[in-house]
Structures are given as structure tokens and as C-alpha cells.
Design a protein that fits this description.
globular, alpha/beta, 6 strands
Length: 143
């Protein structure tokens, strides 16, 4: 008689990957990174457990987008006060917070619950080519 394999948190081996975002398209790169953060690339994947790996994204300021998204894409937030809606275009966001566009896109592709927030903590985004995770010996991840 076969039994269903249940993933236990202590049995999960987590790897560290580094992804170079230079010249990559924002949406396509984000969906592949979300796939790794969820752990869907592993045979022990379980939708109710966090089995994903750590991902470091470098050169987030050098991503590209298609069409007129650089001018037309707008990030909206609300301050909580009357008339407090703030809009920022992708071009302005890339100048002020270069890694925000990548992390925001990846966060939107993860589950909207405690498990998704736990997965999102394993993402590290850096605008330049340097990162502070050399001690973890990250492997390059290419798509």
C-alpha cells in the first residue's frame, strides 16, 4: 500500500541562487523567480509547505520592460488621509528605488497568505552587481 509523501520542514534542503537581471524582461524573470521561491522545481514540492530556495537578484536597475510600460505603468499607494493617493510611474520608481519593481512583481506572484510572506523573505534584491551573501556560496541560476 502506497502512502502520500508529506514534506516535513526539517527535511527540506535549501540552496542559494544568484540571478543576474541585466537585460531580462521584468514579468518573465519574476515568474521564474517566484517558481523557485515556491519550490515548484523540486520533486518534494507541496503547496502547503515552504520548500523553496533562497534567491538573490543582482543588477535589478538594468531590467527591461516591453512597450510603453516605462511611462505608462503606475504604482499606486494610499497614505490613509483624504486625498492621499500617490502615483509613481515605473520610470520614477526605477530612479528612486531600483529594486522595488522586481520585488513588487515577484511578491504579486506568490500566495497571499502567511506562507507567501514566508517565501518572500527568502528573496534578496540588489540594484548593483554586489551582494552581501557570499558566505552562503550562491550558485548562478540562468533561465
Amino acid at each position: 500500500m502506497r502512502t502520500t509523501f508529506i514534506t516535513k520542514p526539517l527535511e527540506v534542503e535549501r540552496k542559494w541562487y544568484v540571478v543576474d537581471a541585466e537585460g531580462q524582461t521584468l514579468g518573465r524573470l519574476s515568474s521564474k523567480i517566484a517558481h523557485v521561491l515556491k519550490g515548484k522545481h523540486k520533486p518534494i514540492y507541496s503547496p502547503n509547505a515552504d520548500v523553496g530556495d533562497y534567491v538573490i537578484v543582482i543588477n535589478a536597475d538594468k531590467i527591461k520592460v516591453t512597450g510603453k510600460k516605462m511611462q505608462d505603468k503606475v504604482y499606486v499607494r494610499y497614505t490613509g488621509h483624504i486625498g492621499g493617493r500617490k502615483e509613481t510611474s515605473l520610470r520614477d520608481m526605477m530612479q528612486n528605488k531600483p529594486g522595488f519593481a522586481v520585488s513588487h512583481a515577484i511578491k504579486g506572484m506568490l500566495p497571499k497568505n502567511n506562507l507567501g510572506r514566508k517565501m518572500f523573505k527568502k528573496l534578496h534584491v540588489y540594484a548593483g552587481p554586489d551582494h552581501k551573501h557570499e558566505a552562503q556560496k550562491p550558485e548562478p541560476l540562468t533561465f
